[in-house]
Design a protein that fits this description.
Layout lengths: L15 H7 L2 H4 L3 H17 L5 H20 L11 H13 L12 H37 L4 E6 L2 E7 H26 L1 E2 L15 H7 L4 E2 L3 H6 L2 H27 L7 E2 L18 H24 L14 H21 L4 E2 L1 H8 L6 H10 L4 H18 L8 H5 L9 H4 L2 H6 L9 H30 L6
Parallel strand pairs: 3-4
Antiparallel strand pairs: 1-2, 5-6
C-alpha cells in the first residue's frame, strides 16, 4: 500500500475497494497543468514570504516541471491508491526533490488547491469557448452577407407568418450566440477569484502573501472568506447554466436545420461531408449532425442539474461529495466545445435553395398584415383593418388564390379604400423594405446589423488575442 499523507491517525490500511471507490484520478488527472501551475506559484510565494528558501523553491519548481513533462509525454504512472492528481504530483515530487518535496504543501490544503485548479481550468476553457463562439458568429455574419437577397417565410407556431430576409433569420442566431459570449465573459469575473491560502477552511497561521500568488496566476482578486473559498461552486453552476442556455440555442438551430433540410421544406441541403445515410434505405440522406447536437443538449442540462443537486444541501465547508463536481463539468465543457466546432465547420457548407425559399415566401397569405397596414395608412383603424383583411383571406381561400392574385374589384369589395397601388404594397420586395423600424427585416436594417456585428467581432477578437498571448506566457512560469 502507498503511504497516505493522512494515515498517521489510522491503525488500519485502507481497503482496496475503498481506494478504488474514493479515487478521482481518472477524472481530475486532466487538471495536471493547472495543479502544477498553482503549485509553482505557491512555491514562489512561500519563498517570497520566507517560509521556504529560494533554493528550496527552485528545487521544487524544477521537480514540478519535470513531472509536467512526464505527464505530458505519457510516461507518468497513475494509481488509485493516491486518490487524486494533487497527491500523485506531491508523491512523485519526492523522486525529483527529495525531502524538500514535503514542504510543498505548507500553508495550503487540498481543499483550496482543488478550488484553485477548477478555477484555473474553467477560466481557460471559458476563454476557449468565447473564442469558439466568436468564430461561429463570424460564420453566421459571413452567411448573412452572402444571402442578403434571399427571402424566407418567418414562422410563429410553426405556421407561415410574415416574410423576412434569410439573413435576418441567421442574424437572430448571431444575437443568441453573442449573448452566450457575454454570459461566459461575465462569468469569468466570478471564476477569476483566487482561493489559494484559504487552506482547509479557516485560513493559515503562516505569513503568506495571497495577493502575490494571485498576481502570479493572473487572478484579478482574492477570495475574502476562507469558508466560502473552499466550498464555493457557484462559478461552476453559473458556467453550466450559461452552457445550458448556449445549448438551447444550438438545439433550436438544429431543429430548424432538420426541418429545412427535409423534403417537405427543401430550404437547404446539408453537405454530404456533414450527413449520413441509412443502413437499409439507399436514398436517405440524414441530418445526423444537427440531430446529435440537439440530443447532446440534454447532457449539458444533466450536468447543470447534477451540480445543483450536489450542492443544494451541503453544510460548510468542504465535503467529499464535491469530488463529484468535475465529471459533469468536464463532460459539459467537452460537449459544448464539440458542438461549437462542428457547427462552425458545417454551416459554411450548407447549400441554400433560394428557389424553394422564394416559392414558400409567395404562398400562405404572408402579405395579409401588409394589406391591413395599407388600409391603416388610408385612415382605417387597425382592428377594423384586421377584420377586413381576415374576410379577404377567407374569400381568397375559397377561391384558392393568394391575396395578390385577387382582382382589384374583388379586393375593393372588402373596402373602397383599396386602390391600384395595393398590388405594389403586397409585393415581396415592398413587404421586406417597408419594415424600417430598428431591428426589422428591411435590407438596410439587416446590412447595418451585419456591419455592427463585424465591428463587434473585431473588437472582441482583440480581447481574445490578449487572452491567448497571456496563456503563452503565464507569470508563474517566468
Amino acid at each position: 500500500m502507498t503511504e497516505k499523507p493522512w494515515d498517521g491517525r489510522f491503525s488500519e490500511e485502507t481497503d482496496n475497494a475503498v481506494e478504488a471507490f474514493t479515487s478521482s484520478i481518472e477524472i481530475d488527472r486532466h487538471l495536471y497543468q493547472h495543479d502544477i501551475d498553482g503549485s509553482i506559484a505557491h512555491c514562489r510565494m512561500l519563498a517570497k514570504a520566507g517560509i521556504i528558501t529560494q533554493d528550496e523553491s527552485l528545487t521544487l519548481i524544477d521537480g514540478l516541471e519535470k513531472i509536467r513533462s512526464e505527464i505530458t509525454a505519457g510516461s507518468f504512472e497513475f494509481s488509485d491508491s493516491l486518490e487524486d492528481i494533487h497527491m500523485h504530483i506531491e508523491d512523485r515530487l519526492a523522486a525529483h526533490a527529495g525531502n524538500i518535496s514535503q514542504k510543498l504543501h505548507t500553508a495550503r490544503s487540498r481543499n483550496d488547491q482543488v478550488a484553485l485548479d477548477v478555477r484555473l481550468y474553467l477560466r481557460a476553457e471559458s476563454r476557449k469557448i468565447i473564442h469558439g463562439l466568436l468564430q461561429l458568429r463570424k460564420v453566421l455574419v459571413d452567411m448573412a452577407g452572402r444571402y442578403i437577397d434571399v427571402v424566407i417565410p418567418g414562422y410563429t407556431h410553426l405556421q407561415r407568418a410574415q416574410l423576412v430576409l434569410f439573413s435576418h433569420h441567421l442574424m437572430a442566431y448571431y444575437e443568441m450566440f453573442a449573448r452566450d459570449s457575454q454570459r461566459f465573459a461575465d462569468g469569468l469575473k466570478r471564476i477569476n477569484v483566487m482561493p489559494l491560502g484559504s487552506a482547509a477552511l479557516a485560513g493559515t497561521t503562516y505569513p503568506i502573501d495571497r495577493e502575490y500568488t494571485a498576481s502570479l496566476l493572473d487572478f484579478h482578486t482574492v477570495s475574502e472568506n476562507s469558508l466560502d473559498s473552499v466550498s464555493d461552486r457557484d462559478f461552476v453552476i453559473e458556467f453550466l447554466a450559461a452552457a445550458s442556455l448556449c445549448m438551447v440555442h444550438f438545439s433550436r438551430f438544429s431543429e430548424e436545420l432538420v426541418l429545412w433540410s427535409s423534403s417537405e421544406f427543401k430550404f437547404i441541403e446539408l453537405s454530404d461531408a456533414f450527413s449520413t445515410g441509412s443502413s437499409i434505405m439507399p436514398q436517405k440522406k440524414n441530418p445526423d449532425v444537427p440531430e446529435l447536437v440537439r440530443g447532446k443538449t440534454g447532457r449539458v442540462f444533466g450536468s447543470l442539474i447534477a451540480i445543483l443537486s450536489l450542492m443544494k444541501s451541503l453544510p460548510l465547508a468542504y465535503n467529499r461529495d464535491m469530488q463529484e463536481d468535475k465529471e459533469p463539468l468536464f463532460d459539459a465543457v467537452k460537449t459544448l466545445h464539440a458542438c461549437i466546432d462542428i457547427y462552425t465547420r458545417m454551416l459554411p457548407n450548407i447549400t441554400v435553395n433560394k428557389f424553394e425559399m422564394g416559392m414558400a415566401a409567395s404562398k400562405g397569405y404572408l402579405n395579409a398584415t401588409d394589406m391591413a397596414d395599407y388600409l391603416v395608412c388610408r385612415g382605417m383603424p387597425f382592428r377594423q383593418a384586421h377584420g377586413c383583411v381576415g374576410q379577404a383571406v377567407g374569400y381568397a381561400l375559397g377561391k384558392k388564390k393568394e391575396l395578390h392574385e385577387l382582382t382589384l374589384d374583388e379586393l375593393r369589395s372588402f373596402s373602397e379604400l383599396i386602390d391600384e397601388d395595393i398590388f405594389e404594397a403586397l409585393t415581396t420586395r415592398q413587404m421586406i423594405e417597408r419594415r424600417q423600424s430598428f431591428g426589422g427585416t428591411s435590407t438596410k436594417n439587416v446590412k447595418a446589423a451585419i456591419d455592427r456585428a463585424v465591428k463587434r467581432i473585431d473588437e472582441e477578437g482583440l480581447e481574445v488575442l490578449t487572452w491567448q498571448l497571456n496563456v503563452l506566457t503565464p507569470s508563474c512560469r517566468t
